[in-house]
Amino acid sequence: MATRSKPNGKAAPGRGSGAAVADGKWSGQRFKRKEDPRLIQGISHYVGDLRLPDLLHCVFVRSPHANARIVSVDVEAARTAPGVVMVVTHSEVAGIGCVPCAGTLPGLKIPNHYVLAKDQVRYVGEPVAAIVAESPYAARDAADLVNIEYETLPAVVDLEKALASPAALVHDQFKTNLAFTHVITAGDVAAAFKRADRVVKQRLVNQRLAPIAMETRGVVAQYLPGEKQLTVWSSTQIPHLLRTQISVMLGLPETSVRVIAPEVGGGFGSKLNVYGEEAVVPWLAMKLGKPVKWIETRRENIAATIHGRDQINDVELALKKDGTILGMRTRVLADLGAYHQLLTPIIATLTGLMSTGCYKIPAIEFEVLGVFTNKMSTDAYRGAGRPEATYLIERIIDVAARELNMDTAEIRRRNFPRPTEFPFSASTGVTYDSGNYQRSLKQALELSGYEKLRARQKAGWKQGKYYGIGLSTYVEICAMGPSAAMPAGGWESGTVRIEPTGKVTALTGASPHGQGQETTFAQMIADLLGITPDDVNVIHGDTAIVPYGIGTFGSRGTAVGGTALFIATEKLVKKMAAIAAHLLGAKPEQMEFHDGRVGAKGNKKSLAFGEVVGAAYSAKSLPAGIEPGLEATHFFEPSNFTFPFGAHVISCEVDVETGEIKFDKYVAVDDCGNVINPMLVEGQVHGGIVQGMAQALYEEVIYNSDGQLVTGTLMDYALPRAPDIPDLTLSRTCTPSPVNPMGVKGVGEAGTIGCTPAVVNAVCDALTPFGVRHIDMPLKPERVWRAVHDAHSKPGHETSATAKSAAAASKSTKKPGRRA
Amino acid sequence: MRSVEIIVNGVERRAQVEPRMLLVQFLREVTGLTGTHIGCETSLCGACTVLLDGHAVKSCTVLAVQADGHAVTTIEALAAQGLHPLQESFWEEHALQCGFCTPGMIMCANDLLARNAAPSDAEIREGISGNLCRCTGYQNIVSAVRSASRKKTRRSAAAAGKE
Ligand code: FES
Ligand code: FES
User: Fold this and answer.
1) Chain B (3-62) residues lying within 8 Å, Cβ to Cβ, of chain A
2) What are the pLDDT digits (tens) for B21-34?
3) Using one digit for the tens of pLDDT, what is the confidence trace for B53-94?
4) Are A819 and A696 contacting, i.e. CB atoms less than 8 angstroms apart?
5) A720: nearest CA in chain B?
6) B103 lines ligand 1 (CB under 6 A)
7) Which ipTM was obtained for this model?
8) Are strands A292-295 and A56-62 parallel, antiparallel or unpaired?
9) What is the pTM of this model?
10) pLDDT tens for residues B126-148?
11) DSSP per position, A582-640
């Protein structure tokens, strides 16, 4: 086993706050991941890889209609098909509780969300029947024999039409498609707008996205009636919360249910949920007395796993001539889909919380209208609410800069809170823990050669070359979070056990799905105990082994889950110090843990780590008041969220004849506080940026006007591929968080949040000579091309002579470019 | 049912299969080698990439009966004598996060390096463009393939020097 790979030669910029992780021997290093050897050899197990004796296979029959009454369901032919052992519809599983919604808001309308549709289907892909057979092929064949008669109803697709009356209804009983209204206000907004020199308005659309983890969802369930033990393997980000919900839905004591999240092949929020299939499959296994497996197909994954974003944001900004923001008014229409999933209603409220971004905006009015439509539910997708917020503020501020004829970096600087103003109370009601927005922006501008880029842009216009420079400065809300603000509580558990052999077992409730917490947590614990990360084994994702925990989402793994383990380890350090001091005849506060030894500072006498562990377990000579054994648990409740931030700068060239965008520089400066493993942080940022870039450029879930999903396969839903992505230059600043002892903040969503507006800003910036003010995402070449042409043809519009001739030339020549 | 004989990682595997059975299903269900993953079953993601007679194929595009009499190499065979240079490089360069795309990605890169021992970054990006990764943003995968190519070149030079 290799241990320490390439030590990080230079310290990250701005590091060295004095917080524990920054001084670590292992923390701060580019330490190779402990989870990788099994993954690169293909010998680890995802849900789909589980093989159990007598395993049966389940397939769901799903609605082909967006809105239809179920007239009749005939399952006889399916029931008697070869290999089929059971077919169920709503009536058989009516005893299973509804799919839970944890997001509560005053006045929220919550429709019953049955695990199999009852009487009516409300989106394409809604499960209507489940079939269990001896092989997946037999189950799929039988699914074709299920005969369901539907009476189709008008579908509610368009968000604005959904609110206009008379509109078709998704849920008749509510007599409206409006599920909730949520308002945040602060300051005197009317006065701010009255006082303003300039008011800038823009309507912005955050299109619907599909998370598309490369591993689709999957559930395997086994019931042992003798032991009354139900084991559910699920590709989930929240094993404990899922266990509680399965117990509730199936009416079982929680001790009878064990949930295991084995290797999880990506989640990005889509597996931060409780899905009907996760109750139906265990129910079938209990009924049949045999294990049952369901693995989602990619088509099902795009249709029936939660979607993200899907908001229409109308934003208005009131400004002084010098760019100072006086007030902001935002109205958000949030497409919820047909039902609530776990967090559906609260995602758009997060947009509200973060809508003022990095800026001091004294007066705000933020209104969200949550709207039912005949589509799959929206829920948490990477960034969940914050990419939408960042997009709206970062776009409107660029539009404002243009109208005020200001540099886009300057207008940002002018409205940042000063570093001395932290903790900073944003007018939305949250308190940003720490920040230095000036520093990250400065660093990003320097790294990208901003001044040179601007000069090149000016020169380019003269030659008919359209370069654009896009900035985005962002702050995000992370380390979810203080329990008062979280539906299920925001704490996390951590247990550290030093085994009699001297090896360490760490149990964490944070259940990762690719973030590498087995490694970062081991690095951190190794530093505290003076051992190596190879001596620390991090266990997660099994409710029978790990104390109750909340899970991994919202960039909380390290800041909340890691902190729980950090404090639990500190408890053991204290205990071991007392034992070692007792054995050495020294004082506990003199004890230091280094290189596998425990001893007093500056004193030659020390004990091997294992000797102290041995003493704790043999318990022959322990100081008074010290129990034998070495195990500690801590449930960490954060006092506040953390607020990572950063600045992204992109430069691109837009081919106005084809609408194609070519990126030549991407610089991201992120500040996530102290860093345990820079290599893993960079990996998170890379992945995040590419997902953010894909929203700006290609990705879009499209339903047609009948509610049919027209982007239902990977052929129609464009994911970024390797050649589409430019090289990314990453850098960091470090402003440690004061709300946890490690000074860490979280970074999983940063790239996605920072990237999207920067890309759109860059493209719109490139098209300044054409008077293009805004283009809605995704910026497909055709859209960009049309924007150039439409803007040019507007009467009274001023363009430079070169721009005019370029547009004229492009009109007659090539067709809009297409992405292969 | 048809009887097939496929040499999987050097071992002859015989089975009676339905004609519609995909090669990826054969590998996973019949031989029990689950390192080859399924991300789409429609030839669009590359998670199921294996070598068929030494050439990378998406094993959800090939029927088991079409592989009858042929040799298949899966991710499980690469580390026969210690980690393969690609596996080492993926580890060193942090070219994986959830690891789900990784076996397919490594098998694809393996084929790429067999055809082009020293690809440029653009050629690497093009070469893996049929394989989707949702976690890494590709940059570290490109670095890993580049580093593996250098490693292989160094090793063969060293081997030639010894002769
Ligand atoms: S599973 Fe074969 S390409 Fe996706
Ligand atoms: S590492 Fe997760 S999909 Fe590639």
Assistant:
1) 18, 20-21, 28, 32-42, 44-45, 47
2) 999 999 999 999 99
3) 999 999 999 999 999 999 999 999 999 889 999 999 999 999
4) no
5) B132
6) no
7) 0.97
8) parallel
9) 0.94
10) 999 999 999 999 999 999 999 99
11) HHHTS-GGGEEEETTEEEETT-S-EEEHHHHHHHHHH-SS--TTPPSS-EEEEEE--SS
